[in-house]
């Protein structure tokens, strides 16, 4: 999803732990921008601005403007980021320049809405199997997320990737048969139904063999 956000960046000289440590003391983080046939450039950016983008509804799929030293403004997308494992602070990001006329591949979150009938009426268990799908589309057509209504689902029914609605230039890349969510029988209920269908508990293996004939 494209948003009217501009992040300022400055060229970065030098690399290594000491340089990165100094940048973080200045409340900046190292970044790299690459793509569309241009050389990669080492930069520094404000982590607070990047965090706002990552924590927004469209997250890392947000296309925003990058202004390097107040020069040319280019649309970019966050492709990789790293947080400190203990402190939780943003440490580094990679940015991809975007050609708005070319299709790109992105992974989009899938949310569910409604209460499955199989849970209310049949005592089933609703499970989310996958929370995202991969699509290909023009940058301006990247959705913030998809939403599927699970209300009609009964036990044994599911929603698959092919049920996610595509529009505009969107093309589904995830395998169409991949399950997104389903309703299954709870294990205790499933076992009881199996026993009932078999006419009660199965007899032990020894009991089935019977006694040997007496001579």
Structure characterization notes:
17% of the residues lie in helices and 40% in strands. It has helices at residues 17-25, 47-54, 117-120, 187-197, 205-209, and strands spanning 2-11, 29-35, 38-45, 63-68, 73-83, 90-97, 104-113, 125-128, 132-137, 146-149, 158-160, 171-172, 179-184.
What structural keywords apply?
215 residues; alpha+beta; six-stranded mixed barrel; four-stranded mixed beta sheet; elongated; disordered C terminus
Tell me, rounded to a whole number, the average pLDDT: 87
Side by side, the strands of the main sheet go 1-3-2-6-5-4
Helical residues, percent: 10-25%
Total number of β-strand segments? 13
Name the poorly predicted regions: 202-215
Terminal-residue CA separation? 85 Å
Describe the global form: elongated
Question: How is the topology of this model organized?
Answer:
Layout: E1 2-11, H1 17-25, E2 29-35, E3 38-45, H2 47-54, E4 63-68, E5 73-83, E6 90-97, E7 104-113, H3 117-120, E8 125-128, E9 132-137, E10 146-149, E11 158-160, E12 171-172, E13 179-184, H4 187-197, H5 205-209
Parallel strand pairs: 1-4, 2-6, 7-10
Antiparallel strand pairs: 1-3, 2-3, 4-5, 5-6, 7-9, 8-13, 9-12, 11-13
